[in-house]
Structures are given as C-alpha cells and as structure tokens.
Amino acid sequence: MSSGADVPMSKTDWIVVGAGSAGCMVAAQLAHATDSRRGLITVVEPPGATARQIDRERPANWLNLLGSSEDWNLSTQESHQLANRTIRWPRGRGLGGSSRINAMIWFPPTRKDLQMLVTASGGSWSISKLQQDLKDLTQWTRPEPPTWQSESSQRFLQATNQLDEGKAGSYMRLNRSGRRWNPAELLNAAQSDGTLEVQRATVNRLLCEGDRIIGVETWDDHGKNRIMANRGVIICAGAIATPGILMRSGIGPREQLQRAGIEVRLESEQVGRGLQDHLIMPVIFQVKSDRFPSHSSVQDIARWQTMGTGPLASNLAECGGLFLDDSIQIHVTPTHYLTYPKTTDHAFMTLGVNASQPQSTGMLRLQSSDPRVPLSIHPHYLEEACDRDVTVQGMRFVRRLVKETNLSQWVVSESIPGKKRGTAQDLEKAICRYSQTLYHPAGTSLMGTMSSSVVTPEFRLRGFQQGWVVDASVLPRLTHGNPNATVMLLAYKAAKELSKVVG
Ligand SMILES: Cc1cc2nc3c(=O)[nH]c(=O)nc-3n(C[C@H](O)[C@H](O)[C@H](O)COP(=O)(O)OP(=O)(O)OC[C@H]3O[C@@H](n4cnc5c(N)ncnc54)[C@H](O)[C@@H]3O)c2cc1C
C-alpha cells in the first residue's frame, strides 16, 4: 500500500474518522484531556446537504430524515428469509452520524450487556467501573424523560403492570426540553478553543508506514487528499463503513481483498463478519381513540415551540422494555408501523417485537476497491431457527397482553398479522413478510482478547501501532436493548485509554 506521495497533504496530531455517536464522544473527551499546545484533533466527516430544519429539531419528524440527504441510504441484499425482500438500512450522515437521524432512545446497557463487555475485555474491565463511566458520560449526554406521552404508551404501561412479566417504562431520550439533541454539540467547546477542527471529506483508506498508521487518504469531488497524523488515527465510521475502510486498507479476509484487487496488508477474517441487528416484527392493532396526527396542527406546533411538549415531542417509539426473561424487546408506537405517516381515518397502536439477542449473524462483502461502491450487506436475518421461535413467542406474549389486560377494552382488532393467523407457521410467515430493521447493526470489527479479534480491549487495531477503532462495529454481541448508550459508553472508555497516550 503506497502512502500516495503525489496526493496533496495536510497535517494534524489526531484524526477521528467519522463524527457519529462514538466519534463525537471520543473526539470531545480527547479534546477535554488535551489542549491546543499538545495536539490538534481533526475530525473527518463526509460532506452532505442538510435536511429540513423542522425535521432536524422536532422529535416526531424523525422518520422524515430517513431517505433524506442525511441518510447513507443503504439497503440489504435480497433474502429468502424475508420473503425475498431487500430492506432499507438507514445510516446517519453528517455531524452526529446516526444520532442525527435516530429515534433518540437512551437505553442504558443491562447488567448482562455490561457482563458481555467485561468478558470481551478479558476481565480487565468491571461492571462497577463501567457503571461509573456510564454515570459520568450521562453528564455530557443528559438524556431526559419524555415531555409527552400518547394514550397507547399510557395504556401499554398500565397493562404491563397488570401482567408483571417484564420491565416496561418510558424511554429516556437524547433531547433538550422536547427538542432533538445532536452529539455533535459535544465538539463545540473544543472547536472554539482551537483544540479540534472538523474537515468535511470521506476517508477511503488508512495510510501506513510498516505497521504504523500515519494518516488517511480522503476523497471528494475534486479528487484525493491525504491527512497525516503525528499521534494516531481513531476509526469511528460505524458498523458498515469501518470494515469498509479497513478492507480498502488491506486489512480483512484475504479472498475478499484479492477479489477486489487490494494488496493484503493483514489477513483478518473477522473484518466484516459477525454482523448482528435487531429485526422488529410489528404487531399492529386498530384502537378506539388517539389517532396520532400525520400533519401538525397550528396548536401542536405552538405547544411544542413554547413548551417543548405535545405530539411533536413524541419520538413515536415512546416506551417499551424487555420481556420473557429479557429474550424480547417490545417497542410501543401510537401509529400503524408500516404505513405511518400516510393519513388514515383510524387510530392504531403497534407493539413491535424483536429478539433481543439474535443468534443469526451476517456479513458485509467488499464489492470494489472504489470507495463510492458500498459494501454489500447480508444480515442473514432469521437463519437460526431460535430467532424465529423467540419472535413467535414474543408475538404470542403481545396477544396475551392485549387479551388479558385493560387493553382488551380499547383494542378494536389486530390488523397485522391478523387474528386468524394463529399457528407458529402462520406467524413465521408474517415475520418474513413484515419485519424491518430496528437500525442496530453491530459486531463487524470484533473486539476481544483472542488473536483473531480485530480490535483489542484497549481499542487498538490489532497488528498496528497508532490505530484505534471504536464504534458499534467493535461490539462482540448486540446489546439487549437499543445500542446507542452502549456505543457512547465504549467511546467514553476509549477516550480514557487514549488520554493515557496523550500523557
Ligand atoms: C434510523 C435510526 C434509528 C435509531 N434509533 C436508535 C435509538 O432510538 N436508540 C438507540 O440506542 N439507537 C438507535 N439507533 C442506532 C444508533 O444510532 C447507532 O447504533 C449508533 O449511532 C452507532 O454509532 P456509531 O458511532 O457506531 O456510528 P454512526 O453514529 O453511524 O457514525 C458513523 C459516522 O461515520 C461517518 N462515516 C461513514 N463513512 C465514512 C468515511 N468513509 N469517512 C469518514 N466518515 C465516515 C458517518 O457519516 C457517520 O457520521 C438508530 C439508528 C438509526 C439509523
């Protein structure tokens, strides 16, 4: 791999690749631990147009951000397990990354998740220290309780209390007084005092001298550039782009690199493998009241603008929790999950069910050495029979919840999959036909102590000096609930590791 001596070059001390959930947290914390005399941090995030301001601010508008200029607009390969469907895989683009377009739910890692991280660290981390880190980092993210709740959520929470078979609650949100908050705000202070700069460019690959990472090659409409880093490069491009950058740098499965004509620098079979995601099956009910508005009324806008409350402050996925011994998560939305925001005369509630610990793992495949060609995404959803079984059990639990609690008086009928679909086979068919991504890809740059892992528990890119990786790709197992809080926790921890290097 050449370092491209003919390509224009700039210099910095640290490069953070990607300003998403992890990138913003790690860059801000690193800036906090250093100062402008000791090193400049350059955060590299691809350029892009911004979506409408109202969609970026109003929590209830987040679905409008999907498919917008702030979305990488990825899709999976067709899968026979999903009735030969391809599904859209939104990923956030622009400062804030996926946190810029996500549903804002702050779901702290469960004790089992923390134990998973401790195991991955080979015992060098502890649950109590991780809990302390989580507490410290929430001083920066400051999740807040919902400022408004739909009737669906209120009724669901009452119903789960009646059955008492899980831990449901209103989700905390990354909001500020009912408005969307973006972790890119964490960069502001360091940008003002000159410790940190943001460059809008897309990273193609790492530049190396022997086993030392010395910079990155970027590209834009005008061609290639190089940014050289005196101290190191921290890759935070997320579960899809990070393995892409590694593979284009010659780090990955030999067969894939060779097929794309890339010289093998380090053979690493785990790069792009181990892909996990939550797959949500929406069980949709027509209900008697509380039709969630598809268009904002003047009153709702005024209420949100003056008090940060009302339906516009809803993130749609307002509440939920883990059930059946934490094997499933249920998300509650006051809408028809598959058709909202198309207008309808009826009121709906969706109870979305997903296996919290899916066993099926997929992979990403490099299609070309050209960074404009996205990796092909093969999630292999539902390949393991247990994932189908757990989802079926979850759907049955939801039906029981509706039948045996006060919800029974409020629900008119089950629209999807429909009451007459009762056998396990019927329900499996519905899962194939209607399930969607819950937007949580992870696990594609495995962290661990084994020599086959891509990243060490110190977040070092194995086999290299001055290279670190931290984002959802390093998670060895997907979290039980929504992963953003855990990704930010890892980034917070990585910054602590890096602070030792900053000295
Ligand atoms: C629609 C949606 C809804 C979600 N809802 C929730 C939720 O409510 N709660 C929750 O916990 N989780 C949610 N998630 C998941 C959560 O947002 C992600 O798990 C988390 O943001 C992952 O953080 P990350 O740092 O790994 O990646 P990201 O936040 O995706 O950041 C990666 C960054 O790298 C940049 N990048 C990509 N390629 C390059 C390149 N070549 N060069 C330079 N930069 C690059 C990207 O533009 C992006 O800014 C949601 C995700 C989506 C997409």
Account of the protein in words:
The chain has 503 residues and is α+β, with helices and mostly antiparallel strands. The protein has helices spanning 21-33, 53-57, 62-65, 111-120, 127-141, 151-163, 188-192, 238-248, 254-259, 298-307, 385-404, 407-410, 424-434, 484-502, and strands at residues 9-17, 41-45, 74-75, 88-89, 105-106, 166-170, 172-173, 175-176, 179-180, 196-200, 202-209, 212-220, 223-235, 251-252, 266-267, 279-287, 319-323, 328-333, 347-355, 363-365, 376-378, 411-416, 436-437, 467-469. The protein has two domains: 1-142 and 181-275 and 441-503, FAD/NAD(P)-binding domain (3-Layer(bba) Sandwich); 145-180 and 279-355 and 382-434, Glucose Oxidase, domain 3 (2-Layer Sandwich). Strands 1, 2, 10, 11, 12, 13 and 24 form a seven-stranded mixed β-sheet that branches. Strands 6, 16, 17, 18, 19, 22 and 23 form a seven-stranded antiparallel β-sheet that branches. A two-stranded antiparallel sheet has the order 3-4. Helix 5 (127-141) packs across helix 14 (484-502) and helix 11 packs across helix 13 (424-434). The relative contact order is 0.19. The structure holds flavin-adenine dinucleotide. Flavin-adenine dinucleotide is lined by residues 17-23, 44-46, 66, 90-93, 97-99, 101-105, 107, 202-203, 236-239, 241, 245, 439-440, 471-472, 482-485, 487.
